[in-house]
């Protein structure tokens, strides 16, 4: 078996294991149409199905209604009848006097939720369509002389999503209990901000103006030079006045 087919069947089986509690050994319910197609394609079901599902202990079974219907079809399906009679007979609850068609018998075993986790092996298009409408029903086909486990139907995918969603949600009773246990938070009063008052005019002091601002170094240097000039001038005037007297 190719690697791609192995991955595909493993992915499908894991889906049914995780969402619908399928477990090995798997149970495959085979009808006469599947046996007839296997005979035409020269596929040994007792050998190939265990290899395909990687389950050597897989249980291949059929129902009394399937066998009775195959016997009624005559010599045309004689080979399929011999194959189907090799499998374990699943008690469907239909007595010989109340035998129904193979399709109705298989659908009655599956019911609304496939309680026995049966894998339906068929090539009947009408039965395949009805199995797709029931959540958790894997369908096994025979195409191009190869066994194929069909991908999960839209109904099965939606049922799995709903299960996951309900598993994550908290039940209403538990939710109400948690709300009661949680402490009630008291509302803290909101403090109003005080408006800024006008400043008291009496407390406001006027800035003192400096009467004699400090003189810079340049101004002090100029005054010293001026004083020296005045002293020299006074000395010169004094000398001139003495010379005039003499």
Automatic annotation (TrEMBL):
Q: Name one GO cellular component term.
A: small-subunit processome
Q: Which compartments is it annotated to reside in?
A: Nucleus, Nucleolus
Give me the stretches of Basic residues compositional bias. 225-236
Q: Which UniProt keywords apply?
A: Nucleus, Ribosome biogenesis, rRNA processing
Q: Where is this region: Disordered?
A: 184-246
Skewed-composition ranges (Polar residues): 210-222
Pfam families from the UniProt entry: Fcf1
Main location, first listed in the record? nucleus
Q: Show the ranges annotated as biased composition (Low complexity).
A: 237-246
Any GO BP: rRNA processing
Could you say which protein family the record assigns here?
A: Belongs to the UTP23/FCF1 family. UTP23 subfamily.
Q: What does this protein do?
A: Involved in rRNA-processing and ribosome biogenesis.
Q: What is this protein's record name? A: rRNA-processing protein UTP23 homolog
Species of provenance: Trichonephila clavata
């Amino acid at each position: 078996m190719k690697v791609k087919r192995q991955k595909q069947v493993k992915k499908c089986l894991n889906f049914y294991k995780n969402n619908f509690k399928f477990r090995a050994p798997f149970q495959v319910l085979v009808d006469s149409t599947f046996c007839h197609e296997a005979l035409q394609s020269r596929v040994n079901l007792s050998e190939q199905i265990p290899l395909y599902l990687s389950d050597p202990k897989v249980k291949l079974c059929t129902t009394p209604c399937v066998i009775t219907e195959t016997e009624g079809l005559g010599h045309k399906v004689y080979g399929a009848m011999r194959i189907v009679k090799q499998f374990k007979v699943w008690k469907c609850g239909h007595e010989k006097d109340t035998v129904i068609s193979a399709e109705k018998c298989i659908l009655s075993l599956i019911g609304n939720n496939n309680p026995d986790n049966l894998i339906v092996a068929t090539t009947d298009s009408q039965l395949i369509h009805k199995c797709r409408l029931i959540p958790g029903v894997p369908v096994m086909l025979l195409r191009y002389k190869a066994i194929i486990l069909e991908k999960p139907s839209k109904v099965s995918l939606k049922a799995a999503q709903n299960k996951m969603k309900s598993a994550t949600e908290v039940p209403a009773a538990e939710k109400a209990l948690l709300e009661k246990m949680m402490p009630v938070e008291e509302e803290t009063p909101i403090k109003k901000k005080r408006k800024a008052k006008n400043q008291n005019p009496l407390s406001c002091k006027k800035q003192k103006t400096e009467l004699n601002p400090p003189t810079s170094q340049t101004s002090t240097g100029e005054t010293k030079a001026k004083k020296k000039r005045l002293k020299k001038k006074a000395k010169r005037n004094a000398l001139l006045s003495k010379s005039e007297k003499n």
